[in-house]
Amino acid sequence: MIRPAVLLSYASAAALSLAAAVTLARADTPEPAAVVDAYGDIALAMYEDALAGAKALDAAVDKLIAEPTEDNLKAARQAWLAARPAYQQTEGYRFGNAIVDDWEGRVNAWPLDEGLIDYVDKDSYGEESDENPLYTANVIANPSLRIGPDVIDASKITKELISEKLQEAQGVEANVAIGYHAVEFLLWGQDLNGTGPGAGTRPATDYDTANCTGGNCDRRADYLKAASDLLVDDLEEMVANWQDGGAARKELADKGENGALATVLTGLGSLSYGELAGERIKLGVLLHDPEEEHDCFSDNTQNSHYYDQVGMMAIWDGAYKRTDGSTVEGPSIADFVAAKSPEAAERVNEAMKATLAKMDVMKKTADSGEMAYDQMLAAGNEKGNKILLDVVDSLVAQTRAIEGAVHALNLSIEVEGSDSLDNPSAVQ
Amino acid sequence: MTRILASALAFLSLLAATAAPAAAANDEAGQAAVVERAVTQYIVPNYRQLAESASTLAGRIDRLCKEPDAKKLEDAQAGFRELLRAWAAVDFLRFGPMADGGRYERFAFWPDPRGIGQRQLRRMISEANPALLGEGALKSQSAAVQGLPALEVLLFEEPVTAAEGAFSCGLAAAVARNLAGIAAEARDGWLGETGWSRLMARPGPENAVYRSRAETLTELLKAELTGLEQTPDQRIRPALGDSPETARPRAAPYYRSGSTAEYWHATARALTSFAEKSEMMSLLPKEKSWIANSVAFEFDNLTRTLGALTPPVETILTDPAQRDKVSYALVVFSSLKNLFHDQYSPAVGLSPGFNALDGD
């Protein structure tokens, strides 16, 4: 309501032509197509950075396998940690973009029953689960295994074996055989400290065929290499999807301008609320269960959450700071909303800043060594619990603010349903 | 064919029998009235009922543990089923005081596909730490051991009337008291000067939650949609499977107490009642009144179908005739979801927003 009044007073006070007034309005309100283009450009840059991180990780894995020293293991872990921020920032693209959501399980599936992959501590992990027949299948130790009625030849651990036979085997989502978290488990091993200090402590000799610990070091190395290679393959696929004319850009374009803008906001709202605030943070605090930690082997969860928020802000603001320090930017959804409703845009700005501040408390508390994330969620740790629940509350407020933006643009968002319902063809 | 014909006939008779609610203007006053009715006619009374049922159950379990016998166990189990019905009336309301401080998850941590609650509860029973039975001690424990699913295991699977079940009985009593406390907090959170009723009645720039009337209305719509989504997706389909062979009775809600069908049925009644009591259909413009008729027709189908199931759940999931009914109910759920999402929302100028199920 403010804007037309301003235009009107200009027009009446000065001899501002109608054409000039229209130009003024255009300069203020970015074209939807330009917003969507910039959104795609930022996606491309983010996935390129994630891919670069995965390639560096893959190189570090090669080195570890060739020379399984503690230093090389440490370097591989460092490469994994360094690869995470760029990937986590892409998560704002997941919901809303079906091409991303359908693919996401291959790279970042979580939580996992890691006993599928390798040896586990039976005292804390247990021997079996009502829900998962492959709870302790341990493919690294077993060259042949039974999956339902079939006996699978696992004598060679290959990309095909782990992605096509083991991933989500028997329809159990916790059978995560590939992606960042599978690699994380292979680099760190289980974190056996419960809600006490410390992460996983897998020794480098788990990969040393001359002085092998944990058994089957050659097969473990094959597994790690296959998983690391797959991560690179999968990220390459997503980079291609976001190139000019790529499938992800086409999917967006096919939705029309309003549909594409709704997708942008759906990605931010769904990640903020159901996924991050709910599934990944609140649940862990409510269950006080250290397994309910997103990066549970490496104790890196504070960074994974933090960079989700950084990525959401980059998408909202239309400005992404790349791993190399350069910036990719363009007309933003924030500008677009602000042109329609400055209040609605400001509410999102404020909410996002507030969330980042709460996330920062969580990150600093963990990074400083005061309390790891899995200690924060322990039963009876009031201070730690509060730090995490503050993040949850701020994400909930952020979601409401994003809904306000949706309303201001008069958009309709499609609530994320399950693939099996909405898109049966995506279910294999 | 038969079903289509029957449906068509039922539809015609329904049209004759019930007209759409008198159309009210979809303006500030009309919207405010819908929100007010939802709160005073549905939400508050049902949270009162929840608190009362939980408190009654806590009393019964206390008596059971003091002097255990079969009759008192029966009373306690009946009280559990009654509490479950009361819960079905509010478990799609994922906002307000019940959504604060993890009350919702503490009241009913379900579904739990990784069996975390079972694992934690078994450990708790084997450790039998008496400190956990003290007033308020459960509150800081895992949400999965302090609500309805844990109480169901304790009352229906643990030997609470025998000497070796004394700790389990004490734990059941503690869980029931905990539930009564949560329900009372949820009820009270709606009332008074700073209550959620006030928040919903007075949206505006200073309101920390609702900036506009439309946002309060959207909250109601989201609740309805959450119920229409979570019931088929989480509470029915995983148990039904694709065939009698792949049906999984243990994935059905509250199968331990034999309450699954009753819970489904109570949910259908609740979702119907929420729409009716709020009279949200009154906001539809006249030319869209067919939406109200279709919604009423489908709710009627849903409630009738789910009310016609014959337990136990193992039979419901394997008997072809009963499976057909459940499959039909899934179709109706989907149709209702579409009616609310694709027809009702745009017709009254709302966008349904994000819901708690997004990340699943």
UniProtKB/TrEMBL annotation, chain A:
Q: Pfam families from the entry?
A: Peptidase_M75
- Report the residue ranges that make up the Imelysin-like domain in this protein: 43-401
Q: Give the main location.
A: other
Q: What does the UniProt keyword field contain?
A: Signal
Q: Where in the cell is it found?
A: Cell envelope
Signal sequence annotation:
1-27
Q: Which CDD domains match?
A: Imelysin_IrpA-like
Q: Provide GO CC annotations from the record.
A: cell envelope
Name this protein carries in UniProt:
Peptidase
Native organism: Propylenella binzhouense
UniProtKB/TrEMBL annotation, chain B:
Which residues are in the Imelysin-like domain? 43-329
Pfam families per the UniProt record, alphabetical: Peptidase_M75 (PF09375)
- Which residue ranges does UniProt annotate as crossing the membrane? none
Which keywords describe this protein according to UniProt? Signal
Compartments reported by the entry:
Cell envelope
Q: Which residues does UniProt assign to the signal peptide?
A: 1-24
Which InterPro entries does its entry note?
Imelysin-like, Imelysin-like_IPPA, Imelysin_sf
The answer, when asked if Secreted is one of the entry's keywords, is: no
Instruction: Report whether Signal shows up as a keyword of the record.
Output: yes
Q: Name one GO cellular component term.
A: cell envelope
Q: Report the main location listed first in the record.
A: other
- What name does UniProt use for this protein? Imelysin-like domain-containing protein
| Species in which this protein is naturally found | Propylenella binzhouense
